[in-house]
From TrEMBL:
EC numbers: 3.6.4.-
InterPro entries noted in UniProt: DEAD/DEAH_box_helicase_dom, DEAD/DEAH_RhlB, DEAD_box_RNA_helicase, Helicase_ATP-bd, Helicase_C-like, P-loop_NTPase, RNA-helicase_DEAD-box_CS, RNA_helicase_DEAD_Q_motif
Stretches assigned to the Helicase C-terminal domain: 223-385
Claim: Nucleotide-binding is one of the keywords in the record: yes
UniProt cross-references to PROSITE patterns, sorted A to Z: DEAD_ATP_HELICASE, HELICASE_ATP_BIND_1, HELICASE_CTER, Q_MOTIF
All copies of domain Helicase ATP-binding, residue ranges: 34-212
Alphabetical list of Pfam families matching this protein: DEAD (PF00270), Helicase_C (PF00271)
Coiled-coil positions: none
Name by which UniProt lists this protein: DEAD/DEAH box helicase
Organism name: Acidovorax facilis
DNA sequence: AAAAAAC
């Protein structure tokens, strides 16, 4: 049994880098995936968050690049032989840095390209030639079209966070990129979450794949303590203060569903005396990288973020994750809470649940196959509460560039009376009685806090779980889209 | 109900 990196017979330069980084024993996904990737077969790999998937594919990939000379007859001295695709810029940056460390003592070159940064330095690096290219889809297509990147010699393609890469928002770009790659190649897919639909879609991009599942897909890390607290919207910041204080937590990710909500919440928490920064897609790339760096260095304690930060980011010893908003997709819940409890450390995940979130929490419970109990928080009197201010003023105060128009909610679609009536009825039936006791709409600090919300929350909670799914449920739409795409999905066309 | 990814 090879459970130690030293038993792997990695090429000397790789073994040296690994030893220098202090890696000794392998995690289960590494133990299982590395030998298979070394054979050059296609892989679909699922393992919990924070268990070392990046090393699980990049080490054997580099080993193969070292062992097998390029079969290229092209004059390019360093054709791109391996392509690694990721869904966010920060993640691409992180994975590229990790690969560069592993490849440090080899002659293999690697670089990363992603949007929001000047094309020129990236172009210079690409023209020098790299064997390993890490990228986000949009910017890679730009470089392909500008003929800065030639991908007709690619032997390996990795889709990290594969289920996201195959999702409706990314699939068109992904298909275009794949159409530039040779058909004869190895394809590796990794993620902590795979839905049955995505698995089927994924299999159309794989040839005789080996499936590696360390534990069940969608399983949350056992090192994360998951808590669900009942809190109406005006009590949510108060809940954060209370949990931070009572558990003695210094640092945390706080996830919010919208960019505007993210900017507002960050501003409010900052005002309430917490060292906070915001990370979302309407910030400049410079601001995004700075926010992440400030959190990593401990300069700020709270990173208020959208799902741009939900996946893959590996920051050591983050003690807690808050879901200020319950995520729309249950898979995102698994990824969000995976920012804590990494590499065997312990972590706390707190989800703040308001009256209208019942369906979403029921979806999470079903996905992670763990019973969820909704609890009440015992507040100390001095925690701030109340509605946070809104509009463009908040946007400006949050230090955002622009006027915030981009982040304002889109105008609602034209109402359809029949649908609206049905939705209204179903919504009322579904959530009847679930509404917390304190339906506080009080302006900031006006009314004293009243009784706890959870007392009457549980019965309706149970009811909501077994209630029929509403036709407006967020999960229906993506699934339908995926199914349609699956029907339409065609494996990539051959090289021009 | 949203976010992400290109200029």
């Amino acid at each position: 049994m090879t459970s130690s990196f030293s038993n792997l017979s990695l090429a000397e330069p790789l073994a040296r880098a690994v030893a220098e980084m202090g890696y000794e024993s392998m995690t289960p996904i590494q133990e299982q995936a590395i030998p298979v990737v070394l054979t050059g077969q296609d892989v679909m790999g699922a393992a919990q968050t924070g268990t070392g998937k990046t090393a699980a594919f990049s080490l054997p990939l580099l080993q193969r690049l070292l062992k097998h000379e390029s079969s290229s007859t092209s004059p390019a001295r360093h054709p791109v032989r391996a392509l690694v695709l990721l869904p966010t810029r920060e993640l691409a940056d992180q994975v590229a840095q990790q690969i560069a460390l592993y490849a440090k003592y080899t002659k293999l070159r690697s670089t990363v390209v992603f949007g929001g940064m000047d094309m020129k330095p990236q172009t210079i690096e690409l023209k020098k030639g790299v064997e390993v290219l890490v990228a986000t889809p949009g910017r890679l297509l730009d470089h392909i079209e500008a003929k800065n990147a030639v991908l007709n010699q690619v032997e390996y393609v990795v889709l990290d966070e594969a289920d996201r890469m195959l999702d409706i928002g990314f699939l068109p770009d992904l298909q275009r990129i794949l159409s530039y790659l040779p058909k004869q190649r190895t394809t590796l897919l990794f993620s902590a979450t795979f839905s049955p639909e995505i698995k089927r879609l994924a299999s159309s991009y794989l040839q005789n794949p080996i499936t590696i599942e360390v534990a069940r897909p969608n399983e949350t890390a056992s090192t994360v303590e998951q808590r669900f607290y009942s809190a109406n919207d005006d009590d949510k910041r108060r809940a954060i203060h209370q949990v931070l204080k009572s558990r003695g937590i210094k640092q945390a990710f706080i996830f919010v569903n919208s960019k505007l909500g993210c900017a507002r919440l960050a501003r409010s928490l900052e005002r309430e005396g917490l060292k906070t920064t915001a990370l979302h897609g309407d910030k400049s790339q410079d601001e995004r990288l700075k926010a992440l760096e400030a959190f990593k260095s401990g300069e700020v304690d709270l990173l208020v973020c959208t799902d741009v930060a939900a996946r893959g980011l590996d920051i050591k010893d983050v003690p807690a994750v808050f879901n200020f908003d319950v995520p729309f997709n249950a898979e995102d819940y698994v990824h969000r809470i995976g920012r804590t409890g990494r590499a065997g450390a312990s972590g706390l995940a707190v989800t703040l649940v308001s009256g209208s979130d019942a369906r979403l929490v029921a979806d999470i419970e079903k996905l992670i196959k763990k019973k969820i109990d909704l609890e009440a928080i015992e507040y100390e009197e001095d925690q701030p509460r109340g509605r946070i201010n809104d509009g463009r003023r908040a946007w400006r105060e949050a230090g955002e560039t622009g006027d915030g128009r981009d982040a304002l909610p889109a105008a609602p679609a034209a109402p359809r009376r029949e649908r609206d009536q049905r939705v209204g009825r179903e919504g009322r039936e579904q959530h009847r009685g679930f509404r917390p006791a304190v339906a506080s709409r009080d302006p900031f600090f006006e009314k004293p806090y009243e009784a706890s919300a959870a007392a009457d929350a549980t019965p309706a909670w149970e009811a909501a779980k077994s209630a029929p799914r509403s036709s407006v449920s967020a999960n229906i739409k993506p699934k339908r889209k995926v199914a349609a795409l699956f029907k339409a999905a065609q494996p990539e066309t051959s090289v021009q």
